[in-house]
Amino acid sequence: MAVKAKANSPAAAGELTARQRKRKENLKLVKRNYQLYFFLIPAVVFIAMFMYFPLYGLQIAFKNYRTGDGIWGSEWVGLKWFEQFFNSPNFSTLLANTLIVSIYSLVVSFPFPIILALILNYVKNLRFKKFAQTVTYMPYFISTVVLVAMMTLFFSPSSGFINTIIESLGGQPQYFMGESKFFRHLYVWSGVWQSMGYSSIIYIAALSGVSPELHESATIDGANILQRILHIDIPTIMPTMVILLIMALGNVMNVGYEKVYLMQSDMTLDVSEVISTYVYKIGLKNQQFSFSSAIGLFNNVINFIILILANTTANKITGSGLW
User: Fold this and answer.
1) What are the helix (H) ranges across the chain?
2) Domain match, 196 and 284 both
3) What is the spatial distance between Cα 95 and Cα 93, in angstroms, rounded to a whole number?
4) Same-domain pairing of 19 and 151
5) What's the pLDDT tens digit per position in 137-193?
6) Which of 18, 227, 253, 297 could form an S-S bond across to 223 if both were Cys, CB 3.0 to 4.6 Å?
7) CATH number of the CATH domain containing 239
8) Domain match, 191 and 280 both
9) Each residue of 2-54: pLDDT tens digit?
10) Taking residues 256-262, what's their average pLDDT?
11) Are residues 96 and 158 in the same domain?
12) Helix (H) or strand (E) holding 63
């Protein structure tokens, strides 16, 4: 009886009315802007079809998938493929190579777009600024295949201009693309060269939102360029930096297999074999679909955990985050 009385109380009725009122307002808003919601339909359909619907196939990571039996007809084996991966002799090497390449790339490549954006922000000559932006953006549009082919030519021990310079200085030619000690450096620094300009665009856009009055006041107070960068520009773009860092950390286990695979050789496998190339070879070449799906699922779960931890930490320290 007490519960019924509470449910039929004026307060409950008022709360229900408020909810209904809010719902009606939302419906009116949708009706008023229905054209905008129609524009969202293709994006929602695309995400649903290519992002969520394929998750249906994740169950083959827990089955002994056979093409003839289909996903539902294949035998359920539980965590067999995960145990096989964790107990394989390649596990520690694959994990170490993936983390070393990814963290090295993150540490090196993350600050360079910020530095480039800050430098371009203080360039007064607009013509030179546009020229510099164009020159630094262009490498991003070079395909991975072309980039690796360029590296192979440039670092060739017989005809590459890098070795030609080394020989002219009295040194011995090096087989850069065929030695393990050079692989990670070539991978990371070529990536910096290719993506630095394009990645700086978002920072340049964020810096354009800084009020000129702040710089004018700081200049009047005697602040130099470095002080203005430290106390005006960096605090302004800090939320952007934090969000991009969180997103980068969320992909720390995803080392793109295309570039690694193209740069790979039998002489560099000890440092160049990462999880993504291993999945490609196991899944597509050897057609072990269940095993490769289990490895890919493990990879994505680790990325998700790192993303959650990075976002939580960023919210506590800076107050900015993805959510």
Assistant:
1) 2-7, 10-32, 34-47, 70-73, 80-87, 91-109, 111-121, 126-137, 144-154, 161-168, 180-199, 201-207, 212-220, 225-228, 234-249, 257-263, 269-272, 275-280, 289-317
2) yes
3) 6
4) no
5) 999 999 999 999 999 999 988 888 898 898 888 888 888 888 899 999 999 999 999
6) 227
7) 1.10.3720.10
8) yes
9) 444 444 544 544 555 777 888 888 888 888 888 888 888 999 999 999 888 88
10) 88
11) yes
12) strand 63-64
pLDDT at 6 (0 to 100):
47
Q: Indicate whether 116 pLDDT > 90.
A: yes
Q: At what angle do helices 91-109 and 111-121 cross, to 10 degrees?
A: 10
Note down the domain range covering 23: 2-64
Nearest to 204 by CA among 228, 240, 173: 240
Length of the chain: 323
Flag whether 69 is in a domain.
no
Reported as a single tens digit per residue, the pLDDT across 70-101 is: 888 888 998 999 999 999 998 999 999 999 99
Cα–Cα distance measured from residue 117 to residue 209, given in angstroms and rounded to the nearest whole number = 13
- The sign one gets for the Cα dihedral 301, 304, 310, 315 is negative
**Is residue 150 domain-shared with residue 276, that is, in the same domain?**
yes
> What is the pLDDT at residue 321?
79
Give every CB contact of residue 83 below 8 A, 6+ residues apart in sequence: none
Q: Is position 50 within any domain? A: yes
Is residue 219 over pLDDT 50? yes
